[in-house]
């Protein structure tokens, strides 16, 4: 997290003060490194410090902060878009504020008990465990962590371990959830909301304002996920939202296919209907595939491959974020309304995957996933080593 904040600060300085395109691009690359470091470290940190019964809700707070960041970015962009010629510098430079918060915050927080014990700081780890649990009697959880760390130390090559058969369930699920998270079409809608809303008949300013509206809905709906994830479980949210998002994508696609000719030819009522269904779509994503794409991989890898496995999952997320971001405008121009049917097909695939292959991890200790989840699952149990 400290390294992430340093990358952010240097990247912000280069991007906002860019004298040429090369400085701007290099600054953005450093910001990308910061995003990668942060997305790797924070969910794992939250999963390792959270008690099992609160792990889902606490981890979704990470996604909540992302949605708040998106909203703030849209608001900043909205107000700086009219400031010439330095509005874009103000927008990029504003990212230095959360980077400073992250830097000072990372200096204040403690290491996780798991990380301390894994590095043979057992007494410090136990003291930290007592501190974050708020009780003195932590022997059962402490002994479980010690046992998991002792087993993890025996694994000399975590990446080779990840390639073994028994590591396949969390690896496959972790990477596919990240892929599916992007192929819901959410980044296409959130990144290019101004283009989308302008296409259906809104003006330039109204398009940016609409992006602010969807950002607000994204934030509010994430609170729904925080409330329900440890009550209804992960699978229910994934499946419910898949149905909700599928209906929204199909309705939007049908309206646009039926009535959208040249840019802005939808009637005002139809344009409003499209915006409403986009908002309902964002709601479903915000309490399901958005946060759970980060939560489930962070809690399903065993300690010996947790860091490496989650790193691969995050890399997969960043890769497909890049693919969608680069391809969406060309796809929108070429496929027009068909792009919504394209994402609808992916939602069907991911819904079926969640139904058949994603196990429930609600309330299960992070270091007990193997015995309580994988060995009990109808399909993944065949990948567990017999007698292990």
From TrEMBL:
Coarse class of the protein's main subcellular location: membrane
One MF annotation (Gene Ontology) recorded for this entry: symporter activity
UniProt keyword annotations, A-Z: Membrane, Sugar transport, Symport, Transmembrane, Transmembrane helix, Transport
Subcellular location: Membrane
Domain of life: Eukaryota
The keyword GTP-binding belongs to this UniProt entry's keyword annotation: no
Transmembrane segment boundaries: 25-46, 58-80, 86-110, 171-195, 207-229, 236-257, 272-297, 309-332, 338-358
Domain Major facilitator superfamily (MFS) profile per the UniProt entry, residue ranges: 1-362
GO cellular component terms, A-Z: membrane
Topology relative to the membrane: Multi-pass membrane protein
Record has DNA repair as a keyword: no
Family, per entry: Belongs to the major facilitator superfamily. Sugar transporter (TC 2.A.1.1) family.
NCBIfam families found in the cross-reference section: SP (TIGR00879)
PANTHER family registered for this protein in UniProt: SOLUTE CARRIER FAMILY 2, FACILITATED GLUCOSE TRANSPORTER (PTHR23500), SUGAR TRANSPORT PROTEIN 8 (PTHR23500:SF590)
Protein name according to UniProt: Major facilitator superfamily (MFS) profile domain-containing protein
The species this protein was found in: Eruca vesicaria subsp. sativa (Garden rocket)
């Amino acid at each position: 997290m400290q390294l992430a904040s340093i990358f952010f600060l240097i990247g912000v300085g280069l991007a906002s003060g860019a004298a040429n395109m090369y400085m701007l691009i290099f600054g953005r690359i450093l910001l990308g490194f910061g995003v990668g470091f942060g997305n790797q470290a924070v969910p794992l940190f939250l999963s390792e410090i959270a008690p099992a019964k609160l792990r889902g809700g606490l981890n979704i707070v990470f996604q909540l902060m992302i949605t708040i960041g998106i909203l703030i970015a849209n608001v900043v962009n909205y107000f700086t878009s009219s400031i010439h010629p330095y509005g874009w510098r103000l927008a990029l430079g504003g990212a230095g504020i959360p980077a400073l918060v992250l830097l000072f915050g990372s200096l204040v927080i403690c290491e996780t008990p798991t990380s301390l014990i894994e590095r043979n700081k057992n007494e410090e780890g136990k003291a930290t465990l007592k501190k974050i649990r708020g009780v003195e009697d932590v022997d059962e959880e402490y002994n479980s962590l010690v046992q998991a760390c002792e087993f993890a130390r025996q694994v000399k090559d975590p990446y080779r371990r990840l390639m073994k058969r028994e590591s396949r369930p969390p690896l496959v699920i972790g990477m596919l959830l990240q892929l599916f998270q992007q192929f819901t079409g959410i980044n296409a809608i959130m990144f290019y909301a101004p283009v989308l809303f302008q296409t259906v008949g809104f003006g330039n300013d109204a398009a940016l304002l609409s992006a602010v509206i969807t950002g607000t809905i994204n934030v509010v709906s994430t609170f729904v996920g925080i409330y329900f994830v440890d009550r209804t479980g992960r699978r229910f949210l994934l499946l419910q939202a898949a149905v909700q998002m599928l209906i929204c994508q199909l309705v939007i696609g049908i309206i646009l296919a039926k009535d959208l000719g040249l840019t802005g030819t939808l009637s005002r009522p139809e344009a409003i209907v499209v915006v409403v269904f986009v908002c309902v779509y964002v709601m479903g994503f915000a309490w399901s595939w958005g946060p759970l794409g980060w939560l489930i991989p962070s809690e399903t890898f065993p300690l010996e491959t947790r860091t490496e496995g989650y790193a691969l999952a995050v890399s997969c997320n960043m890769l497909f974020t890049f693919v969608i971001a680069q391809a969406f405008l060309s796809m929108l121009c070429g496929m027009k309304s068909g792009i919504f049917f394209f994402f609808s097909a992916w939602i069907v695939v991911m819904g079926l995957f969640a139904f058949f292959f994603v196990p429930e991890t609600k309330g299960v200790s992070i270091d007990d996933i193997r015995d309580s989840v994988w060995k009990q699952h109808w399909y993944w149990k065949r990948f567990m080593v017999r007698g292990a």
